[in-house]
Specification:
The structure is a homodimer of 106-residue chains. The first copy, chain A, has 106 residues and is an alpha+beta fold. The first copy, chain A, is built from 4 helices and 3 strands; from the N terminus they run αβααββα. Chain A binds a DNA duplex (30 and 30 nucleotides) through residues 3, 5-6, 19-21, 29-33, 35-37, 39, 51, 53-56.
Amino acid sequence: MGDGTRRAVFERLAQGPRAVGDIADGLPVSRPAVSQHLRVLRDAGLVVVTKDGTRRLYEVDPGGLGALRRYLDGFWTESLAAFKAAAEATAPPATPNPTIPTEPPS
Amino acid sequence: MGDGTRRAVFERLAQGPRAVGDIADGLPVSRPAVSQHLRVLRDAGLVVVTKDGTRRLYEVDPGGLGALRRYLDGFWTESLAAFKAAAEATAPPATPNPTIPTEPPS
DNA sequence: GGCATGGGTAAGCGTAGCCTTACGTAAGTG
DNA sequence: CACTTACGTAAGGCTACGCTTACCCATGCC
């Protein structure tokens, strides 16, 4: 998901179900490129397809979204816990929480 | 940060300040490779260096960590808000929150 | 001063990944 | 049945990037 085009495709999809051509219009890449990105997103379980005549409607899969969320949170809290533990180990806990600003909303 | 080795380097650093050689030991890559990863992390503001004799001690920069957190949260909530809005627009809000499981801890 | 230790940097290689063009295919339309 | 529309897929090119080897610099130690 580190690619800009891929994020753009995904954000378009976050606004609602769309066909491949609709996504390709407005993006500076060709339609097959979008198709390939959609394949990756589908293999990752982030997106599902439904056939509608000759078109394929892609939309975000909430389940995959949640899985991604869990994965990221896992990595994050893991690193963070280790870091916090190390920080508290060296410096005596004057500030128990070492400058981690924004708490996630929602 | 999508690279595995880079994450490994970062996680090692999350456990406390370390020298370059210490990180390279236990990782399946050479020391210069680690050095390059550290350079990237430093340019990203995620890590800071302090000289200690002939060695360089790297450690996580809490400020950069917070910035990364903010960036990720921004992207996340943005996509999520759009997705939720679209979902509520199509389906009448029987369930106002469309299956977004884990809330982030801490 | 001479040597060892710890690291950064340059040059080059190999691969992964994104994109394009070209082509093939299923579903509508007359 | 042609023809069009909306896709997917294959093949190839190009670039980015991670890794290694080789080299150079700084610091500590005798």
